[in-house]
């Protein structure tokens, strides 16, 4: 039995490589369909919050004239859409549709005595046309809340008494202001409506509202709040299915706001039921806008405006954003002695020097109502999944075989059966688990092969260390890309591109390849028996700790902390580095990752160059694992278009190689100068 096992296990390694290659080839069609999907929609929509425009207008002497003027300027700047919320009495007051009073102020206005203890809301309409539009809407809204309303008037103006306190009544949601919708439509704006879940979900009422919005040309809604319309603690699926049917019926889609602290409840279900008629939205918040109103020098303000333009371009080009939502608010400027706003800075960032819109259009996008991606598929998909499963498991087994080659056959059989079982239990968990495992294993295998070439003496046989170094960098990077192909194919569902679903466990990708390759380098890279490896481990554990060891450990921990602080979306960067990044982005179009081309790839190249002559240079090569895992991690940003990620890592390898070559030449000059001059100085 043992002999039979060895007979099949020993040649398995070569078979595993062929299975990995077959799995990779099977993955390519799926990767291509993702590329087709994310290039199927290229319209970009800039949206301004109309409520914010009203807030800003309220500090001007002629609010209505200010709004009319700014709408024209926004249209000229490329802001083609306006966001309108559900109405409230407070917003209608700000729009000058109504005036509101509490009981005490109403009695003062009419110079009458009211009922003692009464705390109602009194409403006066601006004119008869406004009354005809809004009185039925207000009466119905409060009737649904079982709140009594009755007619009221002052002089020649009609109004209502709402038997609810002014503070409470001001917050109740109603249908969007139809007069505002009509005005914006007449001026040629696309309308984006923000709907909340603050009102009870009634199918007929929602159907009526969505039909009305459709007639105004609304093609997309943004959820206002933490819950989608129709979400409830009970019967959620039933209500959300009804809401999705109504959206589909009226041809209205959704917008997914990026970087929310928590996903909006029910959004993923609603997105699925609308067949992912969803676009990604980038929000430029009021707090962001405040930075453009601070007292700054002209050059400082110009830099910030340029930063805003860069931000918009990056969002569209690098993160599949198709809707940019602009917010603003009036800010008190003590130095100037007046209220200021960021609107003029917005227009400059969009259409000024190096403005966002010309650059976005130059990148191949057009302005217009944002459209959802058209999801592409292939008939090869089901068959490809089989090759991907077997190829992915083979890559994992290959990684383990560097440590325990005798277990390869057993692990392969168990791995395939386990992957099939996991896929049966949860297709999503299987896809994410196998994608993460292959993403970790590919750069690990690539680096371990590079280390093995040095330890085995193969590197010393090369006549040119320079050629060997370039070949190792290219070969190692190509092997790391195997993990990319599996990762992209396994996670090619549209939910990842829209970030409705996220790739979990990616933080493990930043550390595990380093640990795996480090373990291999220290204990498994030399042709030792297991007992010799165990002796080496015991020797290291029983070694005396010197001050030098403590210093080295402290430096290593500090470097590790710095590395982790720079990793992921929360990574920190200095102002100088941000300027350098902006320079690279604007110069190259796509910014390579600095840790690749400025650090990991050049160090790997120098290590490989020296390894031809000095075997211990393999420890310098080891640092290159950071660059290899970064290659795979680049594609783990699933909301970034594939071609952008591919350009980014290509730049990283090319520029990293060029910097490494320069450093090698510098090293050779220093070394030869040292050898020439030191003996002469010692005479």
Radius of gyration: 32 Å
Query: What structural class do the secondary elements suggest?
Result: alpha/beta
- Mean of residue pLDDT values: 88
Percent of residues in beta strands? 5-15%
Keywords:
683 residues, single chain, alpha/beta
3D architecture notes:
This protein is an alpha/beta fold and 683 residues long. 60% of the residues lie in helices and 10% in strands. It has 29 helices and 14 strands. The model has no long low-confidence stretch (mean pLDDT 88).
Element layout with pairings:
Layout: H1 2-9, H2 12-38, E1 43-49, H3 50-57, H4 63-77, E2 81-85, H5 89-94, E3 98-102, H6 103-110, E4 121-125, H7 128-144, E5 149-154, E6 157-162, H8 166-169, H9 178-186, E7 190-195, H10 203-215, E8 220-223, H11 236-249, E9 253-257, H12 267-273, E10 278-284, H13 286-290, H14 298-318, E11 321-326, E12 331-333, E13 338-340, H15 343-351, H16 356-362, E14 366-367, H17 381-401, H18 408-425, H19 427-455, H20 465-490, H21 494-497, H22 512-524, H23 530-541, H24 547-565, H25 575-588, H26 594-611, H27 618-622, H28 625-635, H29 642-681
Parallel strand pairs: 1-2, 1-11, 1-14, 2-7, 7-8, 8-9, 9-10, 10-11
Antiparallel strand pairs: 3-4, 4-6, 5-6, 12-13
């Amino acid at each position: 039995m043992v002999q039979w096992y060895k007979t099949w296990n020993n040649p398995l390694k070569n078979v595993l490589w062929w299975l990995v290659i077959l799995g990779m080839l099977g993955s390519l069609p799926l990767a291509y369909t993702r590329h087709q999907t994310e290039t199927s929609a290229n319209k970009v929509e800039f949206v301004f919050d109309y409520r914010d425009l009203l807030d800003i207008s309220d500090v001007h002497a002629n609010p209505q004239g200010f709004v009319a003027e700014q709408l024209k300027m926004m249209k000229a700047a490329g802001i083609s859409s306006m966001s309108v919320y559900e109405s409230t009495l407070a917003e209608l007051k700000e729009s000058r549709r109504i005036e509101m009073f509490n009981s005490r102020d109403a009695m003062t206005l009419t110079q009458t005595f009211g009922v003692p203890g009464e705390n109602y809301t009194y409403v006066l309409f601006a004119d008869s046309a406004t009354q005809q539009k809004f009185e039925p809407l207000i009466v119905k809204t409060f009737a649904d809340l079982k709140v009594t309303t009755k007619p009221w008037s002052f002089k020649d103006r009609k109004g209502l008494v709402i038997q609810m306190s002014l503070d409470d009544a001001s917050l109740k949601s109603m249908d969007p202001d139809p007069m505002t919708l009509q005005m914006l439509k007449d001026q040629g704006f696309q309308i984006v409506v923000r709907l909340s879940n603050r009102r009870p979900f009634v199918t007929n009422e929602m159907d009526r509202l969505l039909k009305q919005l459709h007639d105004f040309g609304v093609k997309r809604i943004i959820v206002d709040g933490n819950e989608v319309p129709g979400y409830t603690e009970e019967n959620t699926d039933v209500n959300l299915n009804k809401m999705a049917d109504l959206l589909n019926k009226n041809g209205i889609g959704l917008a997914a706001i990026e970087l929310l602290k928590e996903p909006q409840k029910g959004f993923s279900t609603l997105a699925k039921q609308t067949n992912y008629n969803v676009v990604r939205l980038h929000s430029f918040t009021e707090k962001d806008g405040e930075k453009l109103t601070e007292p700054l020098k002209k050059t400082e303000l110009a830099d910030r405006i340029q930063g805003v333009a860069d931000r918009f371009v990056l969002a569209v080009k690098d993160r599949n954003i198709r809707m940019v939502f602009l917010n603003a608010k009036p800010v008190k400027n003590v130095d100037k002695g007046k209220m200021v706003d960021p609107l003029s800075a917005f227009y400059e960032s969009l259409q000024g020097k190096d403005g966002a819109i010309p650059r976005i259009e130059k990148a191949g996008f057009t302005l217009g109502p944002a459209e959802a991606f058209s999801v592409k598929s292939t008939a090869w998909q089901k068959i490809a999944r089989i090759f991907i499963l077997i190829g992915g498991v083979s890559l994992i087994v290959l990684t383990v075989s560097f440590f325990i080659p005798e277990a390869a056959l057993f692990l392969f059989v168990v791995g395939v059966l386990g992957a099939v079982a996991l896929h049966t239990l949860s297709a999503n968990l299987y896809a994410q688990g196998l994608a993460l495992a292959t993403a970790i294993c590919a750069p690990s295998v690539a680096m371990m092969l590079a280390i093995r070439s040095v330890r085995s003496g193969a590197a010393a046989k090369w006549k040119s260390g320079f050629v060997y170094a370039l070949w190792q960098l290219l070969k190692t990077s190509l092997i790391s890309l195997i993990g990319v192909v599996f990762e992209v194919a396994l996670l090619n569902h549209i939910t990842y591109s829209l970030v409705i679903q996220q790739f979990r466990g990616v933080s493990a990708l930043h550390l595990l390849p380093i640990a795996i390759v480090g373990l291999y380098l220290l204990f498994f890279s030399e042709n030792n028996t297991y007992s010799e490896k165990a002796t080496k481990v015991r020797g290291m554990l029983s070694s005396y700790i010197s001050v030098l060891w403590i210093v080295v450990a402290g430096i290593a921990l500090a470097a590790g902390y710095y590395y982790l602080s720079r990793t992921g979306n929360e990574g920190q960067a200095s102002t100088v580095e941000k300027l350098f990044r902006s320079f690279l982005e604007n110069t190259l179009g796509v910014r390579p990752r600095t840790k690749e081309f400025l650090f990991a790839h050049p160090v790997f190249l120098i290590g490989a160059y020296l390894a031809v002559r000095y075997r211990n240079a393999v420890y310098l090569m080891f640092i290159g694992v950071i660059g290899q895992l970064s290659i795979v991690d680049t594609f783990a940003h699933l909301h970034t278009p594939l071609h952008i990620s591919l350009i980014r890592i290509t730049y990283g390898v090319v520029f990293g190689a060029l910097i490494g070559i320069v450093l090698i030449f510098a090293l050779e000059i220093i070394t030869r100068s040292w050898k020439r001059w030191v003996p002469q100085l010692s005479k």
